[in-house]
Design a protein that fits this description.
By secondary structure, the chain is mainly alpha-helical. The chain is built from 4 helices and 3 strands. The protein has helices spanning 2-15, 30-53, 74-84, 116-129, and strands spanning 67-71, 88-93, 111-113. Strands 1-2-3 form a 3-stranded parallel sheet, with helices on both faces. Helix 3 links the parallel strand 1 (67-71) and strand 2. Helix 2 crosses helix 3. It starts with a helix and ends with a helix. It holds the Pfam family Hydrolase_like.
């Protein structure tokens, strides 16, 4: 998003007399996480509606107990999940931006793992045993 905005702004400002005005939305804004939660809820409702329409039994209502944010950037991914609060659970990976041995001091995650695979294994184990 950053590189695209910079390129767009540079082109726009070169050909227009007035500078480009913009509002940027993205992580770590809690609104991004709430929007994701809303879209996921709509998707689940739609899937349940299709199941009920196909006479596959009662799909029921399944509000999210937990939503997982897996990321490698504490100041963006983990901070955003922490700001959004429940039902978000943050998992920090050592696969990119973050390389620390311990949890990040300023933006600590709920869990720190070495790889995305470990994060997925954790959540599958947790969700399949509940």
């Amino acid at each position: 998003m950053g590189a695209f905005r910079i390129a767009l702004e540079a082109i726009f400002n070169r050909i227009h007399p007035k500078a480009l005005e913009y509002t940027s939305f993205g992580k770590p804004s809690p609104s991004v996480f709430k929007n994701a939660e809303t879209i996921l809820s709509q998707l689940v409702s739609s899937l349940h509606h299709h199941l009920e329409a196909g006479n596959h039994g009662d799909a029921g209502s399944h509000p999210f107990k937990t939503l997982y944010m897996i990321g490698d950037n504490p100041s963006v991914d983990i901070n955003g999940a922490r700001q959004a609060g429940h039902p978000w659970f943050s998992i920090l990976t050592r696969t990119g931006v973050f390389k620390g041995k311990e949890n990040h001091a300023k933006f600590p995650a709920d869990l720190v793992v070495d790889t995305v695979e470990e994060a997925v294994d954790f959540l599958l184990t947790k969700e399949c045993s509940s």
